[in-house]
Amino acid sequence: MSVNKIQFHDMQSSSNEFLVDVMQGLSQRPASIPPKYFYDAKGSKLFDAITQLPEYYLTRTEIDILSANADEIARHVGTGSILVEPGGGSCAKVHILLDGLKPTTYVPMDISKDHLRLSAQELSVAFPWLEIHAIYTDFTRELRLPQSTPQGTLLAFFPGSSIGNFDPDGAVGFLTLIEDLVGSGGYLLIGVDLKKDKAILEAAYDDAAGITAQFNLNLLIRINRELDANFDITAWKHSSLYNEQLGRIEMHLVSKHNQVVTINNTSFSFTEGETIHTENSYKYSTDEFITLASRAGFQSDALWLGADKLFSVHLFRVPQNHVKVGS
Ligand SMILES: C[S@@+](CC[C@H](N)C(=O)[O-])C[C@H]1O[C@@H](n2cnc3c(N)ncnc32)[C@H](O)[C@@H]1O
């Protein structure tokens, strides 16, 4: 007899937040739009295509590190945990950990609803013993487990260098939310991209096949479709650059000429060369990141680097009986 081991939870408040964020972001100079809006169904598919690109060393390097160290990770954390993955996406990397960790429950959280549902269903077929609670939510607003989640040691898994999308203070804020979620004795396994040669970094975010460009431009297609806008997609181009001073890759959409765009009956003017800033991806040395995580209450438990030292995977722990300053 088959047992239904998947539950879906909709924790996303339906609101006009997308419209509000786009109108606010485009009213500012420089204009910007938060990167979470990349991920409609098409954006999620394009991101998966990016992970397969030769220039995008991040995914394959992180997979190599996780595969080589899955047993050791399981030895640190133990079996029977509750494994929570904010931004689980295709839930591809968690496959590597499941046989060793044998968590009772996996909780992927994602803003891309249909993609999350499909990924959770596929994972359930591959791991029929695993209880899955898939949560449709915006993890920047709230990190909360459904009441039906069983008890157990909590392990948060945040791979893919997604922490780099926050600026350093924002990253401390988000890690503090994770620290609250996993609690005293809980763990965080996190993939963090390392500072390195500018040419390697810039190629990873501007591939020869133009998939990252499609991913970036898809944001405008989504705004046209969902927010009654009239962006001429051919009038914009993708640009990425490594800002060495701030230690971050920046992605922008650059206006090819002077133009006016209308969104929901409001007009926005852009001059030639003006940009919409769509994503940052901060890079860290291992010491910088350990210091940053300690500001959120985490203690370093283990650190793994690939042979080429392109990427890092950290295991952090909240000390037992950890009492927060000010609490
Ligand atoms: C860069 S991808 C990483 C996917 C996967 N974790 C990996 O390592 O390959 C970011 C994922 O987080 C999701 N995401 C981005 N912003 C989010 C937010 N604010 N709340 C929930 N999910 C978000 C996206 O839909 C996407 O699946």
Can you offer a commentary on this structure?
This protein is an alpha/beta fold and 327 residues long. It has helices spanning 17-27, 41-50, 57-77, 94-101, 113-126, 168-182, 198-204, 211-227, 286-295, and strands spanning 6-10, 31-32, 82-86, 105-110, 131-136, 154-158, 187-193, 236-243, 248-255, 259-263, 266-270, 275-282, 299-305, 311-317. S-adenosylmethionine (SAM) is lined by residues 36, 39, 44, 47, 51, 87-89, 93, 109-112, 138-140, 159-160, 162. Residues 36, 39, 44, 47, 51, 87-89, 93, 109-112, 138-140, 159-160, 162 line the site of S-adenosylmethionine.
Number of helices: 9
Category by helix and strand content: alpha/beta
Biggest sheet details: 8 strands, mixed
Rounded to the nearest angstrom, the radius of gyration is 20 Å
Assign an overall shape: globular
Strand order of the largest sheet: 1-5-4-3-6-7-14-13
Low-confidence sequence ranges: none
Count all strands and give the number.
14
Strand content: 25-35%
Task: Kindly report the average pLDDT value.
Answer: 95
N-to-C series of helices and strands: EHEHHEHEHEEHEHHEEEEEHEE
Helix content: 25-40%
Gist?
The chain is an alpha/beta fold. 35% of the residues lie in helices and 26% in strands.
Spell out the key features of this protein.
single chain; 327 residues; alpha/beta; 8-stranded mixed beta sheet; 9 helices; globular; binds S-adenosylmethionine
